[in-house]
Design brief:
Layout: H1 3-18, H2 31-52, H3 54-59, H4 62-69
């Protein structure tokens, strides 16, 4: 795999992790692994935003908070 091909794969993978509804996953990664990466990515972002906005986190219900973070 060339450097350009690898960078393209990285960009597609990252776009999918950030927004899986609008960006398809690279075809050669199994769904089980993608699910793990999506979960880890979301949990990392969620933790960062929760710490940055503790008051907002405390006043929103869990479903609304999750929608906002996503």
């Amino acid at each position: 795999m060339s450097k350009a091909d690898f960078q393209t794969l990285q960009r597609r993978f990252a776009a999918h992790l950030r927004n899986p509804q609008n960006h398809s996953a690279p075809g050669d990664i199994e769904e089980r692994r993608l699910d793990i990466y999506r979960t880890l990515f979301f949990n990392n972002v969620n933790g960062f935003i929760t710490q940055g906005f503790p008051v907002l986190y405390s006043i929103l219900d869990a479903q609304r908070w999750q929608r906002l973070v996503r």
